[in-house]
Batch of 2 targets.
Target 1
Amino acid sequence: MDASPRWLTPEQQAAWNSFIRMQEKLIGRLSRRVQTDSRMSASDYLVLAKLTEAGGRMRFMELTKLLEWEKSRMSHQVGRMAKRGLVAKEDCPEDGRGAFVVATPAGREAIEDAAPVHVDHVRRLFIDALTQEELDTLARLSDRVLAHMEDQPD
């Protein structure tokens, strides 16, 4: 027999709902701004940002895991971006089944143009709403939840 669900208290439900609403609204607005400002999708931006943070080149599966995406989603995303000249896929000489995703010069230019505008929106919509102490607390809480999630089954 299954144990009864551990329902959230009204306070827990309110905290969860506020967090989800804030996250969805923030990501939605940032995604629309990236699309409008740079004509890149939010997914294009994420892939290029992670690639350039890593020096412009990453193993396909490492990038997939970093973004918490399914392999098929990453494959389709990389394919679309490659057709537009933003990334290239290179074979991995050490591993015949592995591949690298590489930011092309056009991809680097696209992220370099988009990043300053994106960070302005992040600052305006998120950073400026909080004090440094609140940001520090949020970072600690986020790190705690992330560490907790690592200990939980997927």
Note: Strands lie at 57-59, 87-92, 95-103.
Target 2
Amino acid sequence: MSLSIDTSFDFHSDTPPGKDSDAASPTLKYYHQLLWSKPLPSGIDFTLASEEKAYLVHRSPIGTYYLSSDAITTNLPGRASKVITRIPRHRQPSPVQYTIGRSIIFPGDRREGMATINAARGFHPRIADRFDLSLECIRRFYAGVPNPLSDVLTRYSDFFTLFVDFEKYVEFFLLEDLVDETTGNVKFFHDFHDFQTPAVPQTTDQYLRYVSASEQFAYARNQRINAYARSPLSFPTSPA
């Protein structure tokens, strides 16, 4: 059996005007439900259901998890606006399509009245909504190493425990193209020196290299999702 996933589908196309695709694209929600309703490393089915007052929910004896969608590529249009304005028109990056390779799910419920993972990584100046830096924080969290997102990741530690370790988290969410297969280290979109390098590229060349690396990852993940969706191992459990 294979999954009915179109990795070229642009979720902006079925999002009502003025709405956020992560919350309002029915196709994006359905794709998340199809892709991530599968066995956890423990063998327990991580079945996701759509509910009236929640985006996607998993309910079972292992717990209740409210999940939300989040984009994992960004061209930093606001944060890098000063750099972008210096780029000649013919070198400006083209507008991107929001495809499934550019999206992931995180816990969406607020805990202790604090920010969610989506919000925390968006507002932290050393992360600037970049997923490569977010994934490095997750890698360090699994390794027990302090990182800029330690507090928020700790609040949702029960979610990350479901995947046992960083390698299995990466495998579950098909993120292998952002991790070096030899070292297990994150492959960054921009120069990285232990979170001391500015998260936002400071020159036009840096910015264009960042966008290129981000686009290469999105393309590779779409290809990986496409292969997974057509493999006999896909869809081992049914979304509710």
Note: The chain has nine helices and four strands.
